[in-house]
Amino acid sequence: MEVVSQVLPFRVNRYVIEQLIDWKQVPEDPIFQLTFPQPGMLSPEHFRRVSDAMDTGDRAHLAREVDAVRRELNPHPAGQMEHNVPRPDGKPLRGVQHKYAETVLFFPARGQTCHSYCSFCFRWAQFIGDTGLRFSGQEISQLHRYLRSHLEVNDLLITGGDPMVMKTRHLGELLDGLLTPGLEHVRDIRIGTKSLSFWPYRYVTDPDADELLRLFERVVESGRHLSLMAHVNHWRELETPIAREAIRRIRDTGAVIRTQAPLLAHVNDDPHVWNRLWRTQVRLGMVPYYMFVERDTGARHYFEVPLVRAWNIYREAASHLSGLARTVRGPSMSAAPGKVEVLGVEELQGEKVFVLRFLQARDPGWCYRPFFARFDERATWLDQLEPAFGEPRFFFQ
Ligand SMILES: *Cc1c(COP(=O)(O)O)cnc(C)c1O
Ligand code: SF4
Questions:
Q1: Whose CA is nearest to atom 5 of ligand 2?
Q2: Does position 383 have pLDDT exceeding 80, yes or no?
Q3: CA 301 and chain centroid, separation
Q4: Of ligand 1's atoms, which has the minimum distance to the CA of residue 290?
Q5: Which ligand is located closest to the Cα atom of residue 160?
Q6: CB within 6 Å of ligand 2 — which residues?
Q7: Mean pLDDT value of segment 57-70
Q8: I need a surface site. Which of 30, 242, 319, 396 has the fewest CB within 10 A?
Q9: So where are the chain's domains?
């Protein structure tokens, strides 16, 4: 754990330790796997390099080795920090990403951390100080100004890290500001968060919890749609009384809770886990939204699941559910050109192929058109797929 946590961020809190992890099941326990460093998270070669450097006792040498290993772990997947950043006056608007016309992503500076860290996190680089994400104090007013001049944006997605680590006072600056004249076109406001799983006290007993719920109510009363996009990997995260209370209190404000999570080896690569997760969510009034494919970054080789297996898990889990839970799309890869869903495996013109489609794309005209890749039982990400039928490239390339 010491070796792995030199490279990948590690942070866990008392709630996760005392209430979520079942210590009788360790090390297999899914929440332990989700949050604690595991030896297999580094390749044997990387592990040895860091471990040897630790043994020398030379801190400068260790820092160099750690840095080198991190750079080999694709710390900024899908160009998330460089691409789609608006430059209204020639200068990049820090903390804002605008990839799909109707949706703007906002990364508030104070929300760029988490209550605990998932060891597969695709934002892992920013948690170890390699931010590329240093914001100015003006970021919130700059965001409001940008939105005022972009009437095509009706969907704002506030993301992190976890924006719900922010004090209500700071969230209020952001959200109340959206309710002012000139921003009526921003109708849907989403907040991506893991707080329901990692710190449900945020909505119940934190000193500014009640004030937070009043803020949510103001957003809803203004006629906007407020959606908490809750990251939930395992149904166990929804079983504690405090999590249940948090869900009830959030729903009472009129906000909707939608749920999403990546499919991860060692944590939830089992159709029964997803089936129970989605059933539980529907029963608690939450809306299943996305099942993601583990991204090409960090400890990916520890968590990744072949696309064909991901599709089979999705299919098995979803086909024993009522339509209420079939709102969930997936398995979906958030890649540079857009979100690509694995629709299935078929045999066409004598060739075994993956059937894929864009759920979201840089070019909206790409969405929902089935396209085909040569079947590969080991492929885990879009960049490992080749076009089917001998085509030289995919239609979007
Ligand atoms: C997923 C994602 C969104 C939101 O997409 P929806 O399909 O509307 O949920 C927006 N921007 C980026 C960059 C994304 O990856
Ligand atoms: S909750 Fe999300 S942002 Fe936070 S550590 Fe986990 S994956 Fe990363």
A1: 117
A2: yes
A3: 18
A4: 9
A5: 2
A6: 114, 117-118, 121, 123, 160-162, 194, 231
A7: 95
A8: 319
A9: 14-25+76-330
Closest residue by Cα to atom 7, ligand 1, is 360
Give buried/exposed letters for 208-236 (b at 16+ CB in 10 A, else e): bbeebbebbebbbebebebbbbbbbbbbb
Phi and psi at residue 351, to the nearest 5°: -120, 135
- DSSP H helical ranges for the chain: 4-7, 14-15, 30-35, 44-56, 59-71, 124-127, 139-148, 168-178, 195-198, 209-221, 241-252, 271-283, 300-303, 307-318
CA–centroid distance, 261 to ligand 2, in Å, is: 10
Residue whose Cα lies nearest atom 1 of ligand 2: it is 194
| Sequence letter at residue 202 | R
Q: What is the dihedral of CA 75, 166, 194, 324, to 10 degrees?
A: -120
Strand order in the sheet with 338-348: 96-100, 103-106, 155-158, 188-193, 225-231, 256-263, 287-293, 329-335, 338-348, 351-361, 371-374
From the CA of 179, how far away is ligand 2's center (Å)? 28
Side chain identity at 231, as an amino acid letter?
A: H
CA distance 310 to 297: 18
On the question of a cis peptide bond just before residue 331, with omega within 30 degrees of 0, the verdict is yes
- From 114, 268, 290, the mutation candidate for ligand 2 (largest count of ligand atoms within 8 A of CB) is 114
Q: Take residue 115 and report the two structure tokens written for it.
A: 């209550």
Mean pLDDT across the chain, nearest whole number? 94
Q: What is the pLDDT of residue 79?
A: 64
Asked whether 200 and 189 are in contact (CB, 8 A), the reply is no
Maximum CA pair distance of the chain?
A: 63
Tell me which CATH code domain 14-25+76-330 carries.
3.20.20.70
CB atoms closer than 10 angstroms to residue 164? 26
In percent, how much of the chain has pLDDT > 90?
Answer: 85
198 vs 14, 140, 231, 246, 282, CA distance in Å? 9, 26, 10, 12, 20
